[in-house]
Design brief:
The protein is built from three helices and ten strands, in the order H-E-E-E-E-H-E-E-E-H-E-E-E. It has 178 residues and is α+β, with helices and mostly antiparallel strands.
Length: 178
């Protein structure tokens, strides 16, 4: 019986490890245009507010220099800065990285206010349209496409009102046939 209990415990631990790994793969990845803040406990000179990532997804940080944040999650960036400061400049630094402002997504076509808008976690096509003032009188609710920032081919894909919009995406609402 003890063998099966241990086997079950190992199985449960493996499941949680896989869930943890899966969650880190879906964590928001930083890129150009994101605004972050970095707090180093008890080190106000190393705590920076409102750092906007430049066009290469990098920023300048005291002692370290240019830091590449592109493609990293806030947790991964936190670890990177902690590792750079540890030993060389501080003993056991406590670093926190927060996302202050997400980069924009873009909406064009048959909406009342086509423009770029700050991304919000959980943003759907329906909510993106609402941010843009709603659909115009000529809009189609069935002919909508998105070009994903992460898609190297920049191929438009069809979307529905409930599909998610990601940061950097370009959403286009076409005219309906009347």
């Amino acid at each position: 019986m003890k063998f099966y209990a241990r086997l079950s415990l190992i199985f449960i631990i493996a499941m949680f490890a896989n869930i943890s790994i899966a969650n880190t793969n879906t964590e928001y990845q930083l890129s150009s245009g994101d605004v972050i803040s970095i707090t180093v406990f008890a080190e106000p000179d190393l705590s920076l507010e409102k750092i906007k990532l430049n066009e290469t997804g990098s920023f300048s940080y005291p002692f370290i220099g240019e830091v590449k944040a592109e493609g990293l999650s806030s947790t991964e960036l936190q670890t990177k800065i902690t590792n750079e400061l540890s030993g060389k400049y501080l003993v056991n630094p406590k670093v926190t990285v927060s996302i202050i402002e997400y980069r924009q997504f873009y909406i064009s076509g048959e909406v009342k206010n086509p423009d770029g808008y700050p991304f919000q976690p959980g943003l759907t096509v329906r909510r993106a349209i609402a941010l843009a003032g709603g659909l115009s009188e000529r809009a189609s609710e069935n002919r909508m496409t998105v070009i994903r920032e992460k898609d190297p081919t920049k191929t438009p894909e069809k979307v529905t009102m409930e599909d998610l919009v990601m940061p950097g995406d370009t959403l286009t609402i076409d005219q309906g046939f009347f």
